[in-house]
Amino acid sequence: MAKLQVAIDLLTTEQALALAAKVAPYVDIIELGTPLIKNMGSAVITAMKEAHPDKLVFADLKTADAGELEADIAFSAGADMVTVMGAAGNATIIGAVKAAKAHGKGVVVDTIGYPDRVKRAQEVTELGVEFVELHAGLDEQWTAGYSIQVLIDEAARAGVPVSIAGGVNLSNVASVIKAGAQVAVAGAAIYGAEDPAAAAKALREAIDAV
Ligand SMILES: O=C(CO)[C@H](O)[C@H](O)COP(=O)(O)O
């Protein structure tokens, strides 16, 4: 069954916990966004895991170096998954995977900014990562002409476990899952909605209907 991941790109632990409390019944993975972790530190990871022990807590570290060390910090704080940049060297990814194995947790590679996301996804899957995030970041999404269809097409030919992030919403989530993504990541479509719980519920239902 495909998973729904809420990306919490808010700035305080209080805001993040309030949003998670509303949407938790409908999501599988709670992602703590990079700005949130930079603002609040690893304490926000601990707070979220304590509040939602039954959910997978995803720390979007976007690690670029010192993979084992950074991943160990987040896993020790309670994270179930951490991200490492696909643009990082393989040694960084291998280090993070080592920390994940020591904690019984997982590493996700984020392909943001990588020119050939599918090729990199296939390469890093060999390194033991959980799945690869085919990702157009917020800046790329705001570039004229951006379409999530690019990521959907990539997922369909990746042949390895992937998630899609970069403007997932109710109008495209079914296509995301039909393309083979194991996880649909939705940030603004949930935290920016007037009723985040209703938005998450609608996404959940659309995923389950595929
Ligand atoms: O990691 C991120 C940005 O770097 C976002 O959390 C991710 O892109 C999902 O958010 P949205 O659905 O708003 O695009």
Tell me what you see in this structure.
By secondary structure, the chain is α/β, with parallel strands linked by helices. The protein has one domain: TIM Barrel (Alpha-Beta Barrel), CATH 3.20.20. 47% of the residues lie in helices and 20% in strands. It contains eleven helices and eight strands. The protein has helices spanning 13-23, 34-40, 43-51, 67-77, 90-103, 117-125, 138-141, 149-158, 173-178, 188-191, 196-208; strands spanning 3-8, 29-32, 56-63, 81-85, 106-110, 131-135, 162-165, 183-186. An eight-stranded parallel beta barrel has the order 1-2-3-4-5-6-7-8, surrounded by eight helices. Bound molecules: ribulose-5-phosphate.
What's the CATH class, please?
Alpha Beta
CATH architect. name: Alpha-Beta Barrel
Task: Estimate percent helicity.
Answer: 40-55%
Order of strands, main sheet, comes to 1-2-3-4-5-6-7-8
CATH superfamily: Aldolase class I
What percent of residues are in strands? 15-25%
Distinct small molecules bound, one entry per kind: ribulose-5-phosphate
CATH fold name:
TIM Barrel
| Secondary-structure content class | alpha/beta
Figure out the total of helices.
Answer: 11
The gyration radius over C-alpha positions equals 16 Å
Number of extended strands: 8
Family: Belongs to the HPS/KGPDC family. HPS subfamily.
Pathway: One-carbon metabolism; formaldehyde assimilation via RuMP pathway; D-fructose 6-phosphate from D-ribulose 5-phosphate and formaldehyde: step 1/2
Domain Orotidine 5'-phosphate decarboxylase: 3-203
Protein name: 3-hexulose-6-phosphate synthase
